[in-house]
Amino acid sequence: MLILGKVVSADTRAEIKKEVARFEEKYGRKPCLAVIIVGEDPASQTYVRNKIAGCAETGMRSLHYEYADGTPQSEIEKTLVDLAADETVDGILVQLPLPKGYDERKLLSLIPDEKDVDGFSPTNLGLLAMNRPRTISCTPFGVMKMLETTGVDLKGKNAVVIGRSNTVGKPMAMLLLNADCTVTVCHSKTKNLAEIASKADVLIAAIGKPKFVTTDMVKDGAIVIDVGINRVDGKLVGDVDFENVEKKASFITPVPGGVGPMTITMLLANTLQAAKAKLKA
Ligand code: NAP
Question: What is the pTM of this model?
Fold first, then answer.
């Protein structure tokens, strides 16, 4: 069965929209997300446009800062410091990846933990590791929402995450562990990956390699979540060989229309949450 992120996403956005209206009525202002982009990378520009559009769709305010590649780092730092101090700004994000030459760690460190709506800060990741989550990285958070819709009890399930990035693989593994799964994390140095994956009740692919996960790596009846976004001959494809794996999986996410739409929706949810936390709403 397909888990359609675009449907889950639309339902979640409708809920967010209602809550945003309630927030505005009570506090006389809208939750606000500030987005900073540096350079002209087309994929990043599309993501930023969609984030701004998501704010508009749910009734939130957004601020958009666009800098040309080559803008001095100090100028971007100044904007971040100002946004950090601005009481009317609830969430701040710097679109990644940054062009070469920028100190990403320094820039991200200027976003206060309470405004880190991407959930990338060491504090927010640490809180997740301690099972005291505050702001959860948007993509894995979205995956958990999609898993919820299957109605499958995750307790004691064997979960395998392929990929260990700080933004997807690691927080994904922590969320599944917090949900009482038995979790194995695989990466490029893992031995016998296919064998490990083939024992998974829940298999998450976050690799960035088209059709990496083939049927021999998938257990009959497994839930398969494809986080990958790869462009092949101008088309978007995931990390899973969807046409064949679909026949074996109990639930599977397509690409496009699967995890992708959930990511921005969870960013909106995190921004609303940050606004409410600040005002203790
Ligand atoms: P990343 O930082 O490049 O991490 C990729 C991970 O895959 C690494 O941990 C790497 O292992 C592992 N890997 C690479 N080749 C492998 C191999 N041959 N065997 C086993 N593991 C391998 O990528 P990411 O940011 O986590 O993103 C992963 C994918 O998800 C990408 O396609 C990205 O575009 C997509 N993505 C989608 C969304 C969404 O909204 N749907 C959001 C974020 C990312 P090592 O650590 O050993 O190098």
Answer: 0.97
